[in-house]
Amino acid sequence: MKVVCINNRELEGASNDFVNLTVGKIYEVIGDNVSPNDGVFNIINDIGERASYHPGRFITLDKLRIDKLNMLGI
C-alpha cells in the first residue's frame, strides 16, 4: 500500500518527534502492517532505515486522490 506523509512534526500518540519523513512524499508500507488499525506502518524512511510510524502521519494515496478530485469538483 502506498501512503503520503502529511505530518512529520510532533504527533500525539506517536513515540518519536524526529521521524526522517518528508511531507508530501509517497512511501510504500512494507511487511504485514498495512492497515491503520494495526497501530503502526513500517516504512523505509528518508535515511534508508526501516522504522515504524504512527498511521496518523499518513494518508493513503487513494484517499489523497479522492480528496483532490473532490476539491476540483469532479
- Count of discrete domains: 1
The order of strands across the largest sheet is 2-1-5
User: In percent terms, what proportion of residues is strand?
Assistant: 15-25%
Distance between the termini: 24 Å
* CATH hierarchy class name: Mainly Beta
Helix content: 10-25%
Instruction: Look up the CATH topology.
Output: SH3 type barrels
Query: What radius of gyration results from the CA coordinates?
Result: 12 Å
Largest sheet: 3 strands, antiparallel
Total number of beta strands: 5
Contiguous low-pLDDT stretches (5 residues minimum) are none
Average pLDDT over all residues: 86
Order of helices and strands: EEEEEH
User: Based on the structure given, which CATH architecture is correct?
Assistant: Roll
Structural class: alpha+beta
Report the principal-axis shape: globular
Total helical segments = 1
Question: Could you list some keywords that capture this structure?
Answer:
74 residues, alpha+beta, SH3 type barrels, three-stranded antiparallel β-sheet, two-stranded antiparallel ribbon, globular
